[in-house]
């Protein structure tokens, strides 16, 4: 249950510092995972993004204070992290369905976001096929693109990048470079930037040796890797596998996610067919 304990530690940290400016890097550090891993893990386990949770909790406390005190709206706006009373009123109305002035008069119902306590129901209904290996540091080569990453942890632009590399021959060239253990094209997410709300997404191949001039290289460090078999059309099967990994496999196996980019390995030439067989490589500690 190390995952649940570390996630709860991060939630407790958010609650203790709710009225401060919080960065995803600082929050994720409490859970000992990368910011991108934390965003995705938090969303899968709670159905909230980190931003939604913080905003919901702050506006819940603001509504309570508004209805139980004579604090001015402008003071509450600044206290709960809004630069102007107008921005506070807009966000307040969006969550609660009423304006701050009407809430003070007791008009309408308020929507409360309660403090989260993480409890995972380990279902385990669907078996997961996996193996664990120790792998020395290895190099991947390919192309990377900075992609927008919203507060939900979802990244846009990935599908378009895959379409491009398949259409312009880049994918075929990368396949020819494969000379490592992972026999397929790789999708890798790395370098989350909270300031720009972006991540680097790679389409790559495991390749040792010289790097062709128009490709970029990255070295993944020596680690223990869990290799999950993912069966089914990749656009559907990959997200389902990630959900099962975070909600079932990690909590029931006692591993922590290492701060190393996860790898989606498209080892089937046709990853869209219903019985396609691909892999997720997750570094653990």
Automatic annotation (TrEMBL):
Keywords (A to Z) from UniProt: DNA-binding, Transcription, Transcription regulation
Keyword DNA-binding in annotation: yes
Highest taxon, organism lineage: Bacteria
Keyword Transcription: yes
Species of provenance: Alkalicoccus halolimnae
Residue ranges constituting the HTH araC/xylS-type domain according to the UniProt record: 8-106
GO molecular function: DNA-binding transcription factor activity; sequence-specific DNA binding
Pfam families documented for this protein: GyrI-like, HTH_18
Protein name: AraC family transcriptional regulator
SUPFAM superfamilies, per the entry: Homeodomain-like, Probable bacterial effector-binding domain
Lineage: Bacteria, Bacillati, Bacillota, Bacilli, Bacillales
């Amino acid at each position: 249950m190390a995952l649940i304990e570390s996630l709860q530690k991060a939630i407790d940290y958010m609650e203790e510092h709710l009225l401060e400016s919080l960065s995803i890097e600082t929050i994720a550090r409490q859970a000992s995972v990368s910011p991108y891993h934390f965003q995705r893990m938090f969303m899968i386990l709670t159905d909230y993004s980190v931003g939604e949770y913080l905003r919901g909790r702050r506006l819940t406390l603001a509504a309570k204070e508004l209805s139980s005190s004579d604090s001015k709206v402008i003071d509450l706006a600044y206290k709960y992290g809004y630069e102007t009373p107008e921005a506070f009123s807009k966000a307040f109305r969006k969550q609660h369905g009423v304006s701050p002035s009407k809430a003070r008069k007791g008009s309408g119902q308020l929507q409360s976001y309660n403090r989260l306590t993480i409890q995972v129901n380990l279902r385990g209904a669907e078996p997961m096929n996996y193996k664990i290996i120790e792998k020395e540091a290895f190099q991947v080569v390919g192309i990377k693109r900075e992609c927008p990453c919203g507060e939900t942890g979802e990244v846009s632009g990935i599908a378009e990048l895959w379409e491009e590399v398949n259409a312009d021959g880049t994918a075929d060239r990368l396949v020819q470079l494969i000379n490592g253990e992972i026999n397929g094209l790789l999708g890798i997410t790395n370098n989350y930037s909270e300031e720009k709300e972006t991540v680097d997404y790679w389409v790559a191949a495991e390749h040792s040796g010289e790097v062709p001039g128009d490709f970029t290289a990255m070295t993944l460090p020596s680690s223990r890797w869990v290799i999950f078999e993912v069966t089914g059309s990749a656009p559907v099967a990959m997200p389902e596998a990630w959900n099962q990994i975070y909600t079932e496999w990690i909590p029931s196996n006692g591993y922590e996610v290492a701060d190393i980019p996860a790898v989606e390995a498209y080892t089937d030439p046709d990853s869209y067919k219903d019985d396609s067989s691909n892999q997720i490589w997750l570094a653990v500690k």
